[in-house]
Design a protein that fits this description.
By secondary structure, the chain is of the alpha/beta class. The protein is built from 9 helices and 13 strands. It has a 9-stranded mixed sheet, sandwiched between helices. A two-stranded antiparallel sheet has the order 8-11.
Length: about 290
């Protein structure tokens, strides 16, 4: 089982990096549950030299609890250019420009997106909650995921970590300006590693509602239900982990992570699917960017 070391980098400006080599387009797809239709928004990053007839397996990048698909702008652009493939970054239901609903539909919604884009096989990069969604997807027979990258989450989420989320996801606050929000986010996500001013501005821009509310203040761009959902007890998906199957699995762990602990990662290596490689990120907590 491989092991690599990665140092955090602050080299790229999210707004300008690879701007001449990749095109981003925001789209949406109609999804449905037992009672209603709703919209799921997503970004598609396409390299300018993309070939419709000769290209590799596309990538889907699925975000964590309170963030949205724009978190991945730098990584998605880089992968699109480096690999010559399309990269899809959805706003999971309840975040960004998607309708605000609940967790049960996540796997079905991803399937709807892939069907709309005529994607038959995909590589999945899931951060935190996005990794848990990926586990649910890849535990099903006949799934379309070829390779699975699990970013700083395991099949067990402790009650203690969920209690931490009560401070990490502080209800539904309001902010006078994007700069004020950016200052809060810089402290909240400090464990991600060094951040440039440009990266913090980009995070704040896509973390906040696009228009100010009736009170004239900025709101965070996710459903307040996400906050109440985070108050649940421990989540145990070890039985699900036993059913996960992919051609290749990589696990990324922040050295200071309190979600994917050393003990959980060790157990993941002794049961369930084979982990082909582990990427350890020094001086970073939950979750590596």
């Amino acid at each position: 089982r491989g092991c690599s070391i990665m140092e955090p980098t602050n080299e790229f400006d999210p707004e300008t990096c690879f701007s001449d080599k990749v095109v981003g387009k925001r789209k949406s797809v109609k999804c449905v549950n037992n009672s209603e239709w709703y919209a799921m928004a997503y970004m598609v990053w396409t390299p300018t030299n993309y070939s419709e007839t000769d290209h590799g397996v596309p990538i889907i990048m699925v975000h964590g609890l309170t963030l949205n698909g724009r978190l991945f702008d730098i990584g998605a652009k880089f992968l699109a250019v480096k690999l010559g493939v399309k990269v899809y970054c959805p706003d999971m239901v309840g975040r960004g420009h998607s309708s605000w609903l609940h967790f049960a539909q996540y796997v079905k919604d991803i399937n709807t997106l892939l069907a709309a884009e005529h994607v038959e096989q995909v590589d999945w990069i899931g951060t935190s909650m996005g990794g848990l969604i990926g586990m649910h997807a890849t535990a099903l027979k006949g799934h379309p995921v070829r390779r699975f990258v699990i970013n700083d989450v395991g099949p067990f989420v402790s009650h203690k970590f969920n209690e931490y989320l009560l401070t990490y996801v502080p209800g539904d606050p309001r902010f006078e300006s994007l700069q004020e929000l950016g200052e809060v986010l810089a402290k909240r996500y400090a464990f991600w590693g060094a951040k440039t001013d440009a990266q913090i501005r980009h995070l704040a821009k896509h973390y906040a509602s696009k228009s100010k509310g009736k009170d004239g203040l900025y709101a965070q761009h996710y459903d307040p239900f996400v906050y109440s959902a985070s108050t649940r007890g421990s989540l145990d998906y070890w039985d699900l982990w036993e059913e996960v199957s992919c051609q290749a699995i990589m696990v990324i762990r922040g050295q200071l992570s309190t979600l994917l602990t050393k003990n959980i990662l060790t157990k993941m290596q002794t049961c369930g699917p084979t982990i082909n490689s582990i990427l350890r990120c020094p001086k970073i907590g939950h979750a590596p960017p």
